[in-house]
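INTERNAL AUDIT FORM
Audit reference: QA-55
Scope: verify that the stored structure record matches its stored sequence.
Auditor: D.O.
Record contents follow.
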Amino acid sequence: MKPPFKSRSALFLVQAGMIAALYATVTILQNLLLPGSASMAVQFRLAEALTVLAVYTRAAIPGLAVGCAVANISSIAALGPFDLIFGSLASLLAAVLMYCLRSVRWLGLPVLAALMPALVNGVIVGFEIDFFFVNRFQFVFGDFLLQGGCVALGELAVLLVLGLPLCKVIERIGPDKRL
């Protein structure tokens, strides 16, 4: 069956846009239904499971970054512009690293790639929370470790509970071959 898009760039844009829209929608709905569960230090942002799409398509890289930016704009009143900047950059960097590590497998799954959002968000968002919110423009290493650990723990939980099983489903039904 021939794809509906004649150019790869059109397909790339559509995939990136769909990933961005899905990420933003899931996060905004989660924040509406369960306030704080997708935007506090210890968070279980369900949309982070979609980060595994960076293992299957480069389009996920801008899609996840834009989706995160849109989702973070929705909470800008509470968190200011800091999360818009740092959270979106963390998502972009994590997606790039995931794409680079996509072929490293353990037990048939991209486990190392799936650890990247926890690592990157733990460091970047942990710094953001410590520096801008907890200690008001001062860096306190112990607080950074605590905040970064909380962020990383939430990310890790989402990726282990939802992200890696999503990989298994994607690989079982086969769309990964077409992405």
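Auditor finding: record pair retrieved intact. The helical segments are 8-33, 60-73, 76-79, 81-100, 111-134, 141-173.
Action required: none
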